[in-house]
């Protein structure tokens, strides 16, 4: 496979937050295989961009044909995303659904995402199942090619001390890290294998414009 670049994106933005630690683990799970496959991994943290609720005068689907972004935060986010060939979205679930910040960041862009492969990895009390389904469906309808395997990483044990450590201290507990290393990592690697297949394929024109 020719050299490709895949961005692992942390989508949590609140403080404290465990998202960066989760994203780092996900990246660690795939790093060895990525290197062996000639795939470059990059890290993007949504919190660095401080995106407000979408505030441009032109809608994303009309860029660049009918206009351009004017705000520095929009331009920076666009440049960061379009620089990569595929994505691993590491998303939290709040209140049984996708977070506003996650959806807002996705909706900021259109053509930067078009036709590219993606993995959705969620985490939360129950693994973020609902948020994972919502984001995966949204990305698919936008024209991304989403891996069939959608890893859901749950704090262990459910409603145990690790949950509170993650929520209030922004740290993963040892039981959670052990469970993820033994089982969650296998789901991540399965999704990663699917992403590599998608990366090797050229999207159909209809897919890229969906």
TrEMBL record:
<dbReference type="InterPro" id="IPR050712">
    <property type="entry name" value="NAD(P)H-dep_reductase"/>
</dbReference>
<protein>
    <recommendedName>
        <fullName>NADPH-dependent FMN reductase-like domain-containing protein</fullName>
    </recommendedName>
</protein>
<dbReference type="InterPro" id="IPR005025">
    <property type="entry name" value="FMN_Rdtase-like_dom"/>
</dbReference>
<dbReference type="InterPro" id="IPR029039">
    <property type="entry name" value="Flavoprotein-like_sf"/>
</dbReference>
<feature type="domain" description="NADPH-dependent FMN reductase-like">
    <location>
        <begin position="6"/>
        <end position="147"/>
    </location>
</feature>
<dbReference type="Pfam" id="PF03358">
    <property type="entry name" value="FMN_red"/>
</dbReference>
